[in-house]
Amino acid sequence: MFTTSGLRRGVRLASAFLIVCSPFVGSFLGLLATRMSLGRPVLTMRSRCDHCDSVLSIADLVPIVSWVGLRGKCRLCGGSIDPALPIIEVAALVVVLWSALVVPPALLWPSALLGWLLLALSMVDIKAFRLPDTLTCTLFATGLTLTWFAYPEQLPSHLMGAVLGFSALYAIGRLFRAVRGYDGLGLGDAKLLGASAAWISWEGLPSVLLVGATSALFWILLTRLAGRRWDRHRPIPFGPFLCLGIWLVWLYGPLTWGV
Ligand SMILES: [Zn+2]
After folding, report:
1. 79 Cα–ligand 1 center, Å
2. pLDDT tens digit string along 189-220?
3. Ligand 1 centroid from CA 70, angstroms
């Protein structure tokens, strides 16, 4: 028989398990994103050094700890390990801790899953300027599944949001191409915005776009101040900025006017 205190203890244990696991999940996300961005198979190869191709041992694969212990270099050849890997391991942990502070315990696991998917999408987009359909479809399917079980009455508005989100960015992308003569917005961004509605409904989409566009402009400004030159031949991955917007709207809800 379940008791309230037993249930609370179970939730605490599940949360602690999630926190301990998260850097290992981050390590997997780093591997997944690196292989996806290179077009390599994700699950069929053992982890290897990017420089000397040696198979890495368990001791080389402990999240965060191995990178610090090896000072960011391969044990065998001394080649530098991609700094994105420890960053995504830490980020996977931050996603869980941040979620634990904001969402109710029952939503901690779904929240972690959403954050991890957004991290993987961002990393692939930064590395390869694309948002793989496999990840976007997973985002869509998991969001719909959560809505189906937790808030079935909201399913129509989430599905409508998916159509609206995709159509809006697709139309903007086509319009940009017609006016400027070259692509300014990838189809992957439209799919990502559509898929995100499965989690945050159509009401969250304007806020996602606003946060995404503002943070992207802010990033361009910062990098310009740091001396980087931008022109139309130098694309900027928009996915990570959309992911930031999706994450903030999931945690805190859509932006509102006034009080
Ligand atoms: Zn090596």
Report:
1. 5
2. 999 999 999 999 999 999 999 999 999 999 99
3. 12
Please say whether the beta carbons of 184 and 213 come within 8 A: no
Nearest to 208 by CA among 179, 169, 177: 169
| Distance in Å, CA 211 to ligand 1 centroid | 40
Ligand 1 centre from 201 Cα, in Å? 46
Q: Ligand 1 centroid to 55 CA: how many Å?
A: 9
pLDDT tens by residue, 85-125: 999 999 999 999 999 999 998 899 999 999 999 999 999 99
Question: How many A from CA of 248 to the centre of ligand 1?
Answer: 38
- Ligand 1 center from residue 28 Cα (angstroms): 19
- pLDDT score, position 259: 46
